[in-house]
Amino acid sequence: MPSNTDDARERTFTMIGAGSAVMNFVGFTAIGAFAVENVAYGGIVGIFGAVGSYFFIPWFLSLSAAQEQSDEELSLADAAQDVPQSTQLGVFGLGLELGAIVMLGIGLSLGPDFITGTASGLVVALAVYFVGSVLLDR
After folding, report:
1. Measured between alpha carbons, how far is 29 from 58 in angstroms, rounded to an integer?
2. Which among 63, 69, 109, 121 has most CB atoms closer than 10 A?
3. Backbone angles phi and psi of 38, in degrees to 5
């Protein structure tokens, strides 16, 4: 019976991640359309944020649930081993969300330059992935 409960919880976390991904896409695209005045640039920022949210939020919710269910105090690295979702995808998702924010900042300060924005977003995403992988021993 616990397996059914765990499966239902993981599906719930995935649905929350999917809903958050849709809202991130809509929000970032709207900000790109109104503030940067370029719908295509906002759409790219929205895709970064949506994919990042879809990967990060279910992993983070599972991580929190694993720490909450433990009888003893779990470190972040120990809790990451008990999570069914991929830690690498979760950390990369966080990087993509932060990369979307950096892309939006570059679009607001330098204008909607696709190459500079996308490159800086990917650099931030990969840097967060690398740091997260080292900190979580993955």
Report:
1. 22
2. 121
3. -150, 105
Read off the pTM. Answer: 0.86
Distance of CA 15 to the CA centre of its chain: 14
The closest of 48, 47, 58, 45 to 17, measured between CA atoms, is 58
Quote the tokens at residue 31: 């900000």
Task: Determine the pLDDT at residue 131.
Answer: 92
Please write down the HEC assignment for all residues of 1-47. Answer: CHHHHHHHHHHHHHHHHHHHHHHHHHHHHHHHHHHHCCHHHHHHHHH
Q: How far apart are CA 99 and CA 123, in angstroms?
A: 8
SS (H, E, C) 97-108: HHHHHHHHHHHH
Which tens digits make up the pLDDT trace of 124-133? 999 999 998 8
| Digit-coded pLDDT (tens) for 85-107 | 778 888 999 999 999 999 999 99
For residue 119, give both structure tokens: 């490159």
**Which region, left, alpha or beta, applies to residue 73 given φ > 0 means left and ψ of -120 to 50 means alpha?**
beta
